[in-house]
Structures are given as C-alpha cells and as structure tokens.
Amino acid sequence: MIRFVLSFILLLAALPARAEIEVREITTPGGLDAWLVEDHSIPFVALELRFRGGGSLDPEGKRGVTNLMVGLLEEGAAEMDAQGFARASESLAADFNYSVNDDRVSVSARFLTENRDQAIDLLRASLVEPRFDPDAIERVRAQILSIINSAQTDPRDIVAKAFDGLVFGDHPYGSSLDGTAETVTALTRDDIVAAHQGALARDRIYISAVGDITEAELAALLDRLLGGLPETGAPLPGAADPNLPGGVKVTDFATPQSIVAFAQPGIDRDHPDFFAAYILNHILGGGGFESRLMTEVREKRGLTYGVYSYLADKDAAQLWMGSVASANDRVAEAISVIRAEWARMHTDGVTPEELENAKTYLTGAYPLQFEGNGPIADIAVGMQMEGLPTDYITTRNDKVNAVTLEDINRVARDLLDPEALTFVVVGQPEGLDSTLN
Q1: Superfamily classification of domain 247-427
Q2: CA 303, CA 327: separation in Å to the nearest integer?
Q3: pTM beyond cutoff 0.90
Q4: C-alpha distances in angstroms, 260 versus 300, 308, 425?
C-alpha cells in the first residue's frame, strides 16, 4: 500500500510546475551549501546530490573502480545486506538512484514527508557505511563484465571507444568508465573502499532539494546525512587536450550500416558567446526534423533515419559533437553532406527566419522541463555545477532572446571549423578510407 502511495505522490509531483520557481541558497551549520525550492503542496521531497569527479577519478591501472563502487552502494549498508537494504527502502516507499559518468557521481532520492527521517537514515547508511560484501562485489562485478563483453560486439559502443581513444588519448576520458575485463577482474575490496573515500567527499558535493521541507529542516537533514563523509577526496584530473585534426578514422566491423561519431572543438558554458553557439547548434543539428543536417541528410537524400549535433561541455574538455548512421554504401555521401553543411553555415551563417524560429522553440520548450519536484531538483543541482546563479531559471529565456543575427553569424564564422571536423566510423564503408592513424 505504501508503495502505491508513493507512486500516486510521484504522479502528482509530475504535474506542470509552478509558473514562478523561487530558489533559495542555504548553508548548514556543518558548512554544506544547498539550494532549496520549498513547496508544501505535496508531502514529498526530491533530493539531488552530485559529487564532482566521477569515473575520471579512477587511479591508473584500476579503470572501472568508481563505476563498480557506485554499483555497490545499494547492495548492503550498515547492518543490512543487499536484500535487507532493498526491503527497508521498499517498506519506506523511498526511491534511491545511484549513477556515475565521467565527471560526477549522482545520487537521487525521493521520499514521503512522513518517512523522511527513516529514509535519510537509510540513504546515509548507503553513502557513509556501504558494506561492500564479497558476494555483492562478485555479483556486481559479473554484471559489469557482461556489459563489457557485450560492448565488444555493439557498433555504437565500438565507435564510442574508438572516438574517445582518438580524441582523448591517455586522459581518463579516453577509455570507458566501465573499465576492461582485465582491470575489473583485478579490482579488490581495498580498491573499492579507496574509490569510495576518493569520490564521495564533502569538498566536491552539490545539493538541491525540492518539496515539502523548510530551510531549517533541510539544514539539519543534510548535516546528518553527509556529516560522516571525508572532508576531501581524490585529486580531480587535469584538463584534456582533445585531438581533433580533421579527417576520417575507420574501424572495420561487419555490420550492414556504419555508425559515425564526429566532433570539432566546442565552447565553454561560461563563454559570453555560449547562447549564440547554443542557438546555432539548434539550427544546425540540434533541432530535430527542423535542423539543417536532418533536412539535408535525411529529408532530401534519405541517407539516414537520424542525424544530430550537440554541444558537449565536459569538466575537462569542450566539444561540438554529432552522430549519424547510414548504410555502408551511402555513409561516405552522408559525411560529405555533413561537411558541406558545416562549411556553409560557417561561411553564410543563418537566416533571420531560422533564428526567430529557433528562439520561439527554445524559449517555449524551456518551461516544460519543470514538470515536477524531481526534474526541478535535477536542473537546480546542474545549475550549481555550472556555476549559474539562482535566478537563471527566470533569466535564461531573456539570454536566448538577446542573441542577435549579427551575434550568431559572427559565432558561426569564429567557432565552426570545418577543417577540424573529425569523423570516426565503425562499419565497412564503401569509398571511405581512413585519413588518420
């Protein structure tokens, strides 16, 4: 019954968000900073925690250890084994999610007001007192090894591996955070404990909460939840130096269609031209069926089901990336069209109509992201990690609308770099050879 209650509350919390969202900054007595959107209309709280560093913290020779550690956080804590932890969260109707990417460990919690204290105690146990039992380690290790093995025959995983290795080399971004069969097999419990201490530390945490909780209640909750974590964690990796020489790298793989990843240097989120670049990308390849790449590659020539581009602002590198898949006998043409559109936008820019349509879409779609407590909490913690102010939610559309045609076409000339556009292809493309080693 209590699980049904949480499901009903989550449904209510997914209804359209309030027109005005007031984000308040708080500092706990223990020195933790957090953002709060207080809303007592539903007896429910969404809490988001982010720890900067993620899979990039893996020590040399121990690739995959942070991923393995995060996979074990809900596999037993304090006096509870994996089944005991699962039963406890189920009985409280509490929902916890743990994940990791290259730059961060993410922890999401959803709980009812009436069970808040017990849910936080349970979450604290998973973060501060994970058991890392031998049977749990072997179970999760086996799951990861299965994923690694499957990736060896998935062309999309193969292209990601080839792309990352070419572009990032020896930087942690240059290999999968899953690790390899060899590194994951060799990981010990001591390695996992060290990864836990290095990744989940107070000096790299970002926090947001949305829902039925006051500032004083949140401050006390956070100090209790996170007070037992180490003050400092492992050193963050240095900046990457992306290798984007232009040209094509082909990895031979027997598949009826080739999978392509492509990129050029990108732009930092803090750059004053970011919003012009963001709109430019929407017009070029980020706007779905309305984008130029989709129009030219799919609609006019039928070379693919989908092609897209996006700005990738990682902690240690910025790329302007994209992807396409096409039949082996047509992928060379698809790449040629992408290059031509990249060059055309670099030279000619965009039209007033394209700019106006992009602004209308981007400003109209933005409020739809705030459809409940969970999404608002997720967006708020992401804003913190990007160094954005608390009023960004209300000023963001103004920044989009402030971009002029002169701005966006200057950025197209300055930032788009057809000569640096680098393609990594996995398949058996006809008429397309590697120009890169």
Answers
A1: Metalloenzyme, LuxS/M16 peptidase-like (3.30.830.10)
A2: 8
A3: yes
A4: 20, 11, 5
